[in-house]
Amino acid sequence: MVLGDYRFALVDLETTGGQAGQDQIMEAAVRVLGGEQELEWQSLIDPACAVPSFIQGLTGISSSMLRGKPRFSEIQETLWSYLDGAILVAHNARFDAGFLRANFARYGRDYQPRILCTLKLARALYPDWPRHGLETICERIGFYSEVHHRAMADVDAMKAFLDYARADKGEAVFNFEAGLLLGLPVLPPTISQTDIDAIPLQPGVYRLLGEAGELLYLAGATSLQEQVCSHFENSAGDSKAAKLARRVYAVQWQALAGDLSAALHVNAALRAEKPLLQRRMKAMGKPCCMRFISNDRGELQLRLRSGLPANIAQTTELLALFRDRKHAKTRIAELAKEHDLCLRRLAVLADTESCGCRICTGAANLPSPAEAEAQLVLASNVEFASRVKAAFAGYLYAPWPFTEPALIHEQSQAGCSEWHLIDDWRYYGSFTWDAATGQLCELSDQARPVDVEAIRLRCEQSKELQYEHYRLLRAFRDDLPWLPLSEFAINKAQ
């Protein structure tokens, strides 16, 4: 049982009001489950103040009943012995936890328990019930008590609900929902540990599916098993992760050769498929290029252009590439601030816009606009241009380093091997090598061999440059072996 190794302290408090900072505890009850034996403790507590009439009517506890009872200072050590190290279980647990935290703090105790709220658990297990108050729950499950709003009576009601829900929903469902609320690592009831153990600790792509087979989420992973498990380990309470975990019915996965392969596959899949519980990929505008030009005075300035030059593969001009125009403007502003570049000098501001650089804001300790202008003139155009190009070095377009298509070889520690076909930073598919036939095979259909000339012809197909592929391939340029197609053919022929 997932929760069997934990101690649970079922707690209920009756208080003189609802504010933990100013009202007092006047009754406490606790029942400890788990461990060697079940323990219980309860006590009336003198709050050292009058009990409001409304509270007396609700609980039946009067000021006279509390006269002569121990103060919290006298019982706090005993109560702590039951609660310390146990999971706090309470109905509307934030209330009880707040009072306990405030009262223990007065005696130097930091009470920060893991909390299981039976109100939230009831809502998760029985969302069709119209109300989830403790009295309503007792009516639903057929648990009757002679008193309500007394500490031990409410503890007994909570235990009755927990026993009912575990029997009614089954151990797997009960543990899953309780585990989610506690932020513990739990698996959906339809997924066993055997299923998880079968997922390899290697790169790949996985899909989380709902009960009807609908796609909820898909992603790539460096370690498939660890990434899948993370969805059920970090999904506490009512978070988005918990909502996803509650709907997962099955996991599909595909082991791949490495991180590049996983990223290429996910990029294509997210464009073709529509996961229900995953943020949609933003509709991309045209890639945007930024040119570095010199004006009549020899000053370096920036110019943005949506789309890419038709001759970008042959260009010798210095260009910076961005995902789209919005991305370009954002990064220009960020990099200019980071490298203290004047946006006015770069001519990327409209007349009504203001620049936040040190010179334009007066932070350069220049006493007048005339002196600021003089400082700009004195600054070397060459030095300024060098700083600008250094600031945007990470976005400069790198010409395709080959005169023909290339195959990138990627292989996992488990021996999964792939060849990714790239030409002019454009991705044309992934293949495996069939040593028996001496041919490449489509990764999506390994029964279909493809010879080198066929994939060379494939690269002659017109294809737009995708910014995501370009950045991804650049990132792996020095990490994986790249072979021009002609060299690949020679090597495999030998």
UniProtKB/TrEMBL annotation:
Its EC number is 2.7.7.7. The keyword Hydrolase applies. The keyword Transferase does not apply. Residues 7-171 form the Exonuclease domain. It catalyses: DNA(n) + a 2'-deoxyribonucleoside 5'-triphosphate = DNA(n+1) + diphosphate. Gene3D superfamilies: GIY-YIG endonuclease, Ribonuclease H-like superfamily/Ribonuclease H. Keywords: Exonuclease, Hydrolase, Nuclease. PANTHER family: DNA POLYMERASE III SUBUNIT EPSILON (PTHR30231), EXODEOXYRIBONUCLEASE 10 (PTHR30231:SF37). NCBIfam families: dnaq (TIGR00573). This is DNA-directed DNA polymerase. It comes from Zhongshania borealis. The lineage of its organism: Bacteria, Pseudomonadati, Pseudomonadota, Gammaproteobacteria, Cellvibrionales.
